[in-house]
Amino acid sequence: MEYTIKQIADIANISTRTLRYYDQIALLKPAKISDAGYRLYSEKEIDRLQQILLYRSLGIKLSQIQSIIDDPIFRTLDALQEHQRNLETEKEKIDQLLATVRKTIQYQKGEIQMTEAEKFEGFKKERLNENERLYGEEIREKYGEEMVERSNEKFMNLNQEDYQKMQELEDRLFARLNQLAETRDLETPEAKEVYEIHKQWLSYTWPNYSAEAHKGLAQIYIADERFANYYNNRAGKEVVSLLHDVVVKYAKD
Predict the structure, then answer these.
(1) Per-residue pLDDT for 96 more than 80?
(2) Contact at 8 Å (CB) between 213 and 155?
(3) What residue ranges in 13-55 does DSSP mark as E strands?
(4) Is residue 94 part of a domain?
(5) Which of 1, 76, 112, 235 could form a disulfide linkage to 239, CB 3.0–4.6 angstroms apart?
(6) CA distance 154 to 161
(7) Predicted local distance difference test score (pLDDT) of residue 243
(8) Per the record, a Pfam family (predicted)?
(9) Is the pLDDT score of 212 beyond 60?
(10) Segments forming the whole domain that contains residue 47
(11) Count of domains observed in the chain
């Protein structure tokens, strides 16, 4: 049986953009190209994609995944057993997060005391994992593996004060976007403030800032519906194109 790229994307719950990127880097090539120029996949490619996604879920870099599954001595059963061990490790991490939640409930009830670090460490890790699951491939395609890994490391090393400031900035960003959406006037101080807030928010995770990278991120926001949906749903109205236009207008090194 043959599958189109859209069918594969729906089956695996990933974007067609991700599949095209995998083709581009020769990680997952289609079985063939149709006469009309469409990528077509077989069961063999589905099995390979499953292996890729299993390794990605464990945080393994794409370049390493390619080396692993293209190794002549690669054996699917051995790989699955390794996945099982790694998933058990991940389960331990989830159990730690649950422990944090339970302790927080006890803390809120006044039953125990919590250190400052204990209050947010598990949630920070969970947020990073969720961002990786939803947006990791697209961001890596745009900025490269090294920058994304450095950004993730910087995020995980945030102290509680900086982490809270980052959350507050995000709240301010959406409040200002909602206000600006009333007029959508890019020449106002409010528009420039939206840009400054977004730039400052990025500084908590980006190793280095550049206007070009900022504009590139804004382009991803409107090109990928998952990013657009996040901003629009959070704001309760269409704001992602507004944020894009603000960044394009004001971003300068």
Answers:
(1) no
(2) no
(3) 32-33, 39-41
(4) no
(5) 235
(6) 14
(7) 97
(8) TipAS
(9) yes
(10) 3-74
(11) 2
How far, in whole angstroms, is CA 75 from its chain's centroid? 30
Rounded-to-integer distance, Cα 92 and Cα 132, Å: 19
102 within a domain of the structure (yes/no): no
Q: Which amino acid is at 125?
A: K
In a domain, 106, yes or no: no
Tell me the three state secondary structure of residue 3.
strand
Helix (H) or strand (E) holding 222: helix 211-223
User: Is residue 7 a part of any domain in this protein?
Assistant: yes
Q: CA 98 to CA 191: how far, in whole Å?
A: 40
pLDDT digits (tens, 9 = 90+) for 222-233: 988 888 888 999
pLDDT digits (tens, 9 = 90+) for 108-165: 888 877 765 566 666 677 777 777 777 788 788 888 888 888 898 888 888 878 888 9
The CATH number covering residue 48 comes to 1.10.1660.10
Contact at 8 Å (CB) between 250 and 191?
yes
Highest average pLDDT, of 50-64, 173-187, 224-238, comes from 173-187
From 24, 49, 74, the end of a domain falls on: 74
For the chain, how far is it from start to end, CA to CA, in angstroms?
52
Amino acid 171: pLDDT: 94
